[in-house]
Amino acid sequence: MPANRLKRQTADRPNTGIVHLGLGAFFRAFGCVYVADAMQASGGDWGIVGVSLRSATTRDALQDQDWAYTSVSLDPTGATPRAIEVLNDVLVAPENPQAVLDAMAAASVKIVSLTVTEKGYCHHPATGRLNADHPDIQHDLAHDVPVSALGYLVRALQMRRALGRPPFTILTCDNLPDNGRLVQGLVLELAGLIDPDLAQWIKDFGRFPCTMVDRITPATTADDIATVQALTGYHDAAPVMHEPFSQWAIEDDFVGGQRPDFAAAGAELVANVSAHEDMKLRMLNGTHSALAYSGYLAGHETIAQTVGDPVFGTFARALWAEILPTVTPPPGVDLGSYADALFDRYANGNIRHRTWQIAMDGSQKLPQRLLGTLRDTFEAGQSAPMLCLAVAAWMRYVGAVDESGNPIEVKDPMADNLAALSDAADTPQAKVAALLSIREIFPADLAGKLQDPVTEAAEDIWALGVRAAIEKRTMA
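^ thats the sequence. predicted structure below, dont judge the formating
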């Protein structure tokens, strides 16, 4: 271990008030920072126990640092490091699931937050209902010790009820429409299959505030670790790199009103987060995904490189022109100015947000990020050639071969099925029809409306390449 390893500097630490499921780079760059700022402003016992649901990597990197790490803000001119000391422990669920349940059931814990990505909710993205056939859910129905995030939530709430303790607030921080209400429905479905009385108790006393989270956070690389050492003079095995911008809108609905002073940390506490969430999902996440699939196919490694290409910069603007009519802005927000600010964030060359990283799990992301916008556009009697091209670019991507004939490692829970459907079809039209037949992604009525415009875009992508296909539309 390096002699100059980062170590926690503060001797006193708050009691644990939050357990976080899915402790990756994003939450450490976002939620942990807000909680640290809230305690600095107003105090409180809001220390965090992080939980890795799959891998020991984060725990192993942080434990010799007493859970401290460096948060690095990257603007176009440089980097600003800051030590974050809000974590009290990191548990690895597969190693000791009971320790995770015990932590969640502890009397001091008031909030369980989540960043488990769309696929972590074991649901059908097209309907928002629980996928009871998912292997993890099947396991959790048959065993008291869970493996899924939903299973941990339900079993820990079951323990709290048996101990006479109130439920914790479930605070999801994932990019899902009406994310709190979605998670509430999934928790209640699973709890109802295990114990209907438990489900009723959760429904009566639990709280599931919706949130909108926003901070671009690339995966940490070895180069980032070296950069932090050069900046600070110490070795940090698990820093997080992120943009300066950060926004968190939270519905102020917590069990017993117990929460950190998020407002003092700069979060927006609102009665209803739907407008913030819809704006961000469609305008940021939707264009992010569109640029990721098309940019990757065109050979661009990062989003900054992608929008630095004039064809893709124009594509981003054209996407927003189709998206904006479907978005109702939050009070005081000008959508045109918001789009301009997004473009500037994308163009920040110090944020190496890889197109391949954003392209992961598209089967789970498309319904929230693109298909809802397309549905609203069609229902308004309008066309959306750029959004349809984005769907076609996803279809080209999941075929698992790039435009140069090189294999693509597609990271998606449906990757094998997607590739098989694509491979079995001989023409772009047939590939589009095969992929549109997947009802877990494309409802039948929407698939019918997408068939012709997505086929037209796909034929151009396969014949011309994605960059030329975009240029053909933007120059028309």
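The longest strand covers residues 69-75.
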